[in-house]
């Protein structure tokens, strides 16, 4: 499996064709998803099931390729590990709340936008922080390593103290333990945290645009087109809206 993915990464313009044929030959699609992001990719500790919006998008892609959504293997990624896992050939695609940015485009191919989010703030109910303008000198803001949120908050609130964590579960646990005044990331992810614990709320308006794309190997243009066609198909058929309304109640 790894050699098949790896070889596709080195064949220039032909790699996308090789990617799809390698997936079909293997008999399953391998997708990197998050396990700690409620509503998008979350592993239930009691059942062991991974569920969410991104998971259902991955299932729909597997169904397009094989006619069977079960021909899918999910591998856990974080904001920090996902690109390297793609480059290593551990996964065929990243579907993991990944914002399309010019810097990331230098490393990966992105599909068309499949979800539009915006960075926001999560605080405990009763907090004096009501929006980005309340993030002052001495305010401790929690964020996740490797995410666009870290640089964005430094740009928007340069006097804030930014504490970085490995994943969203760790960052949210730190917020609940009083180690910070606010947690920042995309509103879509924060809705999932607020859904888990109603003592925490989103405040203020989103202060960035965060368009999510499916990430594929750099130069993998034919497979990227295949994925773009897939996104258009599920949008046109109404399947996308059905998946979105299932998970995202406040978008």
Please give a structural write-up.
With 251 residues, this protein is of the alpha/beta class. The protein is built from ten helices and 15 strands. It has helices at 2-8, 15-26, 53-66, 82-88, 102-105, 148-156, 168-176, 187-196, 221-237, 239-247, and strands at residues 29-33, 36-37, 41-43, 50-51, 72-76, 93-94, 108-110, 115-117, 119-124, 140-144, 161-165, 182-186, 200-203, 210-212, 215-217. A five-stranded mixed beta sheet has the order 11-10-12-9-13, with helices on both faces. Strand 2 and strand 3 (41-43) form a beta hairpin. It is globular and about 55 Å long.
Biggest β-sheet strands, sense, barrel:
5 strands, mixed
Helix content: 25-40%
How many beta-strand elements? 15
Order of strands side by side in the largest beta sheet? 11-10-12-9-13
List keywords for this structure.
disordered N terminus; five-stranded mixed β-sheet; 251 residues; alpha/beta; 39% helix; three-stranded parallel β-sheet
Q: What's the helix and strand layout?
A:
Blueprint: H1 2-8, H2 15-26, E1 29-33, E2 36-37, E3 41-43, E4 50-51, H3 53-66, E5 72-76, H4 82-88, E6 93-94, H5 102-105, E7 108-110, E8 115-117, E9 119-124, E10 140-144, H6 148-156, E11 161-165, H7 168-176, E12 182-186, H8 187-196, E13 200-203, E14 210-212, E15 215-217, H9 221-237, H10 239-247
Parallel strand pairs: 1-5, 1-6, 10-11, 10-12
Antiparallel strand pairs: 2-3, 3-4, 7-15, 8-14, 9-12, 9-13
């Amino acid at each position: 499996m790894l050699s098949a993915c790896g070889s596709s990464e080195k064949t220039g313009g032909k790699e996308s064709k090789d990617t799809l044929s390698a997936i079909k030959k293997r008999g399953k699609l391998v997708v990197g998803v998050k396990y700690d992001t409620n509503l998008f990719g979350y592993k239930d500790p009691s059942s062991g099931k991974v569920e969410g919006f991104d998971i259902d998008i991955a299932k729909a892609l597997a169904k397009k390729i094989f006619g069977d959504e079960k021909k899918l293997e999910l591998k856990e990624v974080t904001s920090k590990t996902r690109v390297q896992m793609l480059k290593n050939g551990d996964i065929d695609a990243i579907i993991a709340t990944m914002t399309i940015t010019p810097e990331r485009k230098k490393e990966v191919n992105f599909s068309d936008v499949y979800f539009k989010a915006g960075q926001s703030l999560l605080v405990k109910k009763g907090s004096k922080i009501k929006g980005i303008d309340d993030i002052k000198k001495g305010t401790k803001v929690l964020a996740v390593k490797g995410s666009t949120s870290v640089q964005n908050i430094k740009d928007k609130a340069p006097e804030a103290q930014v504490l970085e964590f490995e994943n969203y579960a760790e960052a949210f646990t730190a917020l609940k333990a009083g180690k910070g005044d606010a947690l920042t990331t995309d509103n879509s992810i924060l809705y999932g945290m607020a859904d888990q614990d109603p003592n925490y709320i989103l405040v203020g308006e989103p202060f960035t645009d965060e368009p999510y794309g499916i990430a594929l190997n750099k130069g993998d243009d034919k497979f990227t087109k295949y994925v773009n066609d897939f996104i258009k198909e599920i949008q046109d058929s109404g399947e996308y809206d059905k998946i979105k309304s299932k998970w995202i109640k406040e978008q």
